[in-house]
Write the structure tokens for this entry.
Amino acid sequence: MAGSGAQSIAIDECMDLDFVGTVAQAHAIGFIGNLHVSAALFEETEDASIDAERCLAAGRRFPGYVFGLGGPITQHIDPLQMEKAVATYRERCQR
Amino acid sequence: MAKEHLRRALHGEYTEVIPWLPHIGTHAAQLLGVSAATYLQDAELLARGAVLCAEHYGCDGIPLLDDPQMEAISLGCVPHWSEAGPPSLISSPLAPVPAEQVPEHLPPLPDETTGRWPTVIGAGECAKPELEARDIALVGIAAGPCTIAYHLRGLALFTDLLRRPELAAELFAYAGRVSAVSARIYAEVIGCDIVAVNDTPATMLKPEYFQRYVLPNLQPAWQIIHRAGKTSSFWA
């Protein structure tokens, strides 16, 4: 994926963000990811804030990081969980 | 600056702030209080949904439409619409065709007038100025070659890869041209700032197959996106 010719990649929730960041940096591309949508937004077995912290801690170590979701979402989530993740993002990124 | 931060990050640069771009799916329908089926087929709702999501979650970029089946439906696949998510495909035009007849049954390439493209283009016309005024990037998502080939041929695609690789290669090449048409419409007609190619089924292929069938057929889309001065992204 990193060598496909695209300027950036978005990866799903199963990928390790440290590994992806290392690969993306080696290819001088951006990378988007990868909040655990299944566990944090659909099943709510993970805390959305804690998972947003995981993403930001791993992603910001590399150039080209964009905070994003590890998959598409539907009507089956509680928007409050998404708002929690975004609140953490805003707080940690001072936005 | 939000859009510029996002553009620079997607080009692999460190940015002062980490940008935020969600893979929003059909979540906007939930915020709008309508079914996914209604939302995905209505230009005004798609535009309102993109702006609403971007504002509600403070995003730096937002997809206009996130429906991997859109291209397949424009090529003759039959959808089963859902109240709560993107449609499922219940029939594929190439699924019952013997492998050797696939090349002669490939549908005509789509254009701006085919399937739901007029709806998507209409949505883009409404959403783009609204998002520009808020410094939010508009993102187009094109289906990738493996997604399109799989939708058209169904599970037979995977037996073709083993038994008739030369015919599978023809189908993937065709699917790459369809993907490039989508990329052109998003980049040049709608004027999206970022054009992603979403090809989740490609992750089911082993690396050798990915390199042979997917990689070369992504290139026409990247060329179109880059020639238009837009930012490319590969989602899988």
Summary: The beta strands of chain B are 61-63, 78-80, 88-91, 137-143, 194-198, 231-235. Chain B has a mean pLDDT of 97. The longest helix of chain B spans residues 165-190.
